[in-house]
């Protein structure tokens, strides 16, 4: 996977679209593969307690899958939700309903400003998973996620970013204010153009590529 070309923001979107429309792969399968791969990567670091911070989109959906797999293996895990539940849709909603039914603890932090209760939850975790904002976001994070990012960066926990540190531009490598400072980034299919830029280095940490099961023929269409 390391010799694959880099995926831009537009190409990342195209992977999901072509997978569904031409290769008959539902997005929920790609999300499952992504989340399980990230969970396995995190487990290799022997986490004692994990707080997974989720936004409203598919990045949050990956976080729900990670939570389920960690819970299955006995790792204490909680979800910190930074959006109203009614904003969760599609594949992310499928996985949100699964963790609700499974009884995984969900902490609601959709209100502004972010309360001190979040800081206390941060102190209970040795790992934080950033599943708030994905590669499609180009503007600065809004509240309450902006406050969450600042508190996460100030905490002592290790941080794993899912696909991209929230606040970073995946094409240019330019950080917005604020941007997650991750210890490592688990990105999908292949790395992104901005991650090798000097401006991105303090935020992405070590970059690990997680395969999500996209067919080789599909990748050939993307990279030709």
From TrEMBL:
Which Pfam families does this one have?
YjeF_N
Q: Which segments constitute the YjeF N-terminal domain?
A: 12-220
MF terms in GO: metal ion binding; NAD(P)HX epimerase activity; nucleotide binding
Q: What are the binding positions for (6S)-NADPHX in this chain?
A: 58-62, 134-140, 163
The UniProt record gives the binding positions of K(+) as: 59, 130, 166
Q: What is its EC class?
A: isomerase
Instruction: Describe the reaction catalysed, as an equation.
Output: (6R)-NADHX = (6S)-NADHX; (6R)-NADPHX = (6S)-NADPHX
Q: Which UniProt keywords apply?
A: Isomerase, Metal-binding, NAD, NADP, Nucleotide-binding, Potassium
Under which EC number(s) is this enzyme classified?
Answer: 5.1.99.6
This molecule's function is given as:
Catalyzes the epimerization of the S- and R-forms of NAD(P)HX, a damaged form of NAD(P)H that is a result of enzymatic or heat-dependent hydration. This is a prerequisite for the S-specific NAD(P)H-hydrate dehydratase to allow the repair of both epimers of NAD(P)HX.
The UniProt entry, under PANTHER family, shows: NAD(P)H-HYDRATE EPIMERASE
Annotated NCBIfam families: yjeF_nterm
Question: What protein am I looking at?
Answer: NAD(P)H-hydrate epimerase
Whose protein is this, by species? Blastopirellula marina
Q: Which gene encodes it?
A: nnrE
């Amino acid at each position: 996977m390391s010799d694959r070309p880099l995926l831009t923001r537009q190409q990342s979107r195209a992977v999901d679209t072509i997978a569904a429309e031409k290769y008959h792969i539902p997005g929920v399968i790609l999300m499952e593969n992504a989340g399980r791969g990230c969970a396995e990567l995190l487990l290799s670091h022997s986490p004692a307690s994990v707080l997974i911070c989720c936004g409203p989109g598919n990045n949050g959906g990956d976080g729900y899958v990670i939570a389920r797999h960690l819970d299955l293996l006995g790792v204490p895990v909680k979800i910190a939700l930074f959006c109203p539940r009614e904003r969760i849709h599609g594949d992310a909603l499928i996985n949100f309903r699964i963790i609700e039914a499974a009884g995984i603890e969900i902490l609601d932090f959709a209100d502004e400003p972010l309360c001190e209760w979040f800081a206390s939850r941060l102190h209970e975790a040795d790992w934080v998973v950033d599943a708030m904002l994905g590669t499609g976001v180009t503007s600065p994070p809004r509240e309450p996620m902006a406050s969450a990012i600042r508190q996460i960066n100030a905490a002592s926990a290790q941080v794993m970013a899912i696909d991209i540190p929230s606040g970073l531009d995946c094409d240019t490598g330019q950080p917005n204010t604020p941007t997650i400072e991750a210890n490592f980034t688990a990105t999908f299919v292949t790395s992104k153009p901005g991650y090798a830029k000097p401006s991105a280095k303090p935020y992405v940490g070590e970059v690990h590529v997680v395969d999500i099961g996209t067919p080789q023929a599909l990748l050939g269409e993307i990279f030709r």
